[in-house]
Specification:
Order of helices and strands: HEEEEEEEE
Number of domains: 1
Radius of gyration: 21 Å
CATH architecture: Sandwich
Mean pLDDT: 84
Number of helices: 1
Largest sheet: 4 strands, antiparallel
CATH topology: Tick-borne Encephalitis virus Glycoprotein, domain 1
Low-confidence stretches: none
Shape: globular
Strand order of the largest sheet: 1-8-7-6
Number of strands: 8
CATH class: Mainly Beta
Length: 136
């Protein structure tokens, strides 16, 4: 009887545990730069940005969006991904962008800074993107 109880409890514990979720980390990349991802054989390059987000303190018909292109390279294989940031969503709001997968990783746009201001659109060289990434 004790063996039956033990095995039943063990089976319940094993099957009752939720599946392990991938651990997300945040990577910061400046426009035109390549970053080696710590602990991974992975490089991420911020290659392009197009920004039509509604500037701060401006009344716009639409919130707009910003598109970011990242080059992802692992073991000599490279792939480009495009991520989109929602307008009127700031870094302190949390994740403001889309996600994509490439080379066994999930990437999610966390923020694109600086955010446009009235009469001041950032130069591409000023942009810094923060991206969450996790191994799939």
């Amino acid at each position: 009887m004790k063996n039956l109880f033990f095995w039943s409890l063990l089976l319940l514990l094993i099957t009752g545990c939720p599946p392990e979720q991938p651990v997300s980390k945040v990577l910061e990349v400046k426009y035109g730069e390549t970053v080696d991802v710590p602990g991974e054989q992975l490089k991420v390059t911020f290659t392009a940005a197009g920004d039509s987000r509604c500037p701060k303190d401006v009344q716009c018909i639409t919130a707009g969006e910003a598109k970011v292109t990242l080059g992802v390279e692992k073991d000599g294989v490279s792939e480009n991904i495009e991520l989109i940031a929602k307008g009127l969503c700031y870094e302190e709001d949390g994740t403001c962008g889309s996600e994509a997968t490439a080379l066994g990783y999930r990437f999610r746009l966390y923020s694109l800074n600086p955010y446009p201001e009235q009469n001041v659109m950032p130069n591409p060289e000023d942009y810094v993107v923060k991206v969450e990434y996790a191994v799939l």
